[in-house]
Specification:
The chain has 336 residues and is an alpha/beta fold. It folds into three domains: 102 residues, no CATH class; 75 residues, no CATH class; 133 residues, Trna Endonuclease, Chain: A, domain 1 (3-Layer(aba) Sandwich). It is 54% helix and 16% strand. It has 14 helices and six strands. The chain has a six-stranded mixed beta sheet with strand order 1-6-5-4-3-2, with helices on both faces. Helix 10 crosses helix 11 and helix 12 packs across helix 13.
Length: 336
C-alpha cells in the first residue's frame, strides 16, 4: 500500500511539473506573439504616415481616428495611448528580430519613453539580467541608475555598460558612486540617527535590495562580533551569491572619517578569519556616508584591504541633467 501511495505522489508531482512548465511555455509564446503583433501594427501606422497624401489627409488626427474605428471593430485595446506605444516600439526597434521577447509589453512601453539609445539599451539589458518587474524598471529609471553608473566610466565603459548591462564579476562591479534612498520618502529637512536610517532601510528591504543590485541576500542587522572581550556590531550584513562573499555595510549619518575605515577593516579581518568557509571569497566592506573627503579617505585607505570602499548615499533623486552632461562630455571626448 505504501508503494502505491509513493507511486501516486510521484505521479501528482510529475503532472504538476508538466502543467507548470507548459503554462510557462504557453505564456511565453503568447507574449512573443503579442509583442510581434503590436510591432506589426506600429509598422503599419508608420508606413501609412510616410504615405504622402494619406499623411496630409489624416495628419495629427490619425491615431485618434484609428482608436475610434478599431475599438468599434475589436473592442478595447486600441486607445490612442496604446497605438502611440505600438508606433514607438516599431520606431525604437525597426528590426522585428531585435525585439526583447524576454520582456513584456509593459516593459517595452517604459523603454520606448527613453530617448537616448544607449540609456534605453542599458535598461533593456538590465531588466533581462535582473528579471525586473515593470515596477522595478520604473524605479530604476526614476533613480537614474544608468546615469549614476555611467557617470563614473570612460567612453569605452559607457558603451559597454549600455550594450551589456552591469555585469557583476568583481567587487567594484557592485558599487555605485552614490546610492539613492528616495524610496524612504524622508522629508527635507531631516534629522535621522544612524539607527533610524538603518531601521527604515530594513523596513523597505525589498527596495533597498533593488538599489544594491543583483545577487544580494540579507543576513542580518547589528551583527555582533566579539573581540578582546568587547562586543562590536556591523550595521548590515549581506551575502553576495555571485561573488560568493559576505558584504558588510556600515551607515554613517554625516561624513565618513578615518576611524570608520579602521573599524570596517577590523570587521573584514574578523569575517575572513572567523565567518568565512572554504568556499567563500574575502568579504567586502562598504562604509555608506552622507559625505566624504576624498583626500582624507585616500590616506585612511593606505595599505588597507582592497575589498573596502567608502561610498556616498543621498535621500533624494539625483540631478539628471548634471549626470547627463558628465556622460555626454565623456562620449564626445576623443580617445587619446
Amino acid at each position: 500500500m505504501e508503494t502505491i501511495h509513493t507511486a501516486y505522489s510521484s505521479l501528482i508531482a510529475t503532472i504538476s511539473t508538466t502543467y507548470t512548465n507548459g503554462k510557462v511555455v504557453a505564456l511565453r509564446a503568447v507574449n512573443n506573439q503579442l509583442l510581434t503583433t503590436y510591432w506589426q501594427i506600429g509598422q503599419h501606422i508608420v508606413e501609412f504616415e510616410q504615405g504622402g497624401k494619406a499623411k496630409a489627409t489624416y495628419g495629427k488626427a490619425l491615431l485618434e481616428n484609428l482608436s475610434k474605428d478599431l475599438n468599434k471593430l475589436h473592442g478595447k485595446g486600441f486607445s490612442r495611448s496604446n497605438l502611440n506605444y505600438m508606433r514607438l516600439v516599431y520606431v525604437c526597434f525597426p528590426i522585428c528580430e531585435e525585439l526583447p521577447h524576454k520582456l513584456t509589453w509593459t516593459h517595452l512601453c517604459e523603454l520606448v519613453k527613453i530617448n537616448d539609445p544607449l540609456e534605453r539599451s542599458f535598461y533593456q539589458q538590465q531588466a533581462i539580467l535582473e528579471n525586473w518587474s515593470t515596477t522595478e524598471l520604473i524605479r530604476q529609471k526614476n533613480s537614474s541608475l544608468y546615469l549614476r553608473l555611467a557617470s563614473s566610466k570612460d567612453k569605452e565603459g559607457i558603451l559597454k555598460l549600455a550594450h551589456q548591462g552591469q555585469i557583476v564579476a568583481q567587487p567594484t562591479d557592485i558599487l555605485k558612486d552614490i546610492y539613492v534612498f528616495e524610496f524612504l520618502k524622508i522629508a527635507e529637512p531631516y534629522h535621522l540617527s544612524e539607527t533610524d536610517l538603518e531601521q527604515r532601510l530594513i523596513t523597505h528591504l525589498q527596495s533597498f535590495l533593488l538599489e544594491l543590485g543583483k545577487g544580494f541576500a540579507f543576513i542580518g542587522r547589528q551583527y555582533r562580533i566579539t573581540l578582546g572581550n568587547r562586543n562590536h556590531y556591523v550595521d548590515l550584513v549581506f551575502y553576495h551569491r555571485i561573488l560568493k562573499c559576505f558584504v558588510l555595510i556600515d551607515l554613517k549619518r554625516e561624513e565618513a572619517n578615518y576611524q570608520d575605515v579602521g573599524q570596517m577593516n577590523m570587521y573584514l579581518g574578523y569575517f575572513e578569519n572567523e565567518e568565512n568557509t572554504e568556499s567563500d571569497n574575502p568579504p567586502i566592506g562598504i562604509v555608506l556616508a552622507k559625505e566624504k573627503d576624498e583626500l582624507v579617505i585616500q590616506y585612511a585607505m593606505h595599505n588597507v584591504s582592497s575589498q573596502l570602499f567608502v561610498q556616498k548615499y543621498q535621500l533624494y533623486l539625483p540631478n539628471k541633467e548634471e549626470l547627463r552632461k558628465v556622460i555626454e562630455d565623456q562620449l564626445n571626448r576623443e580617445t587619446e
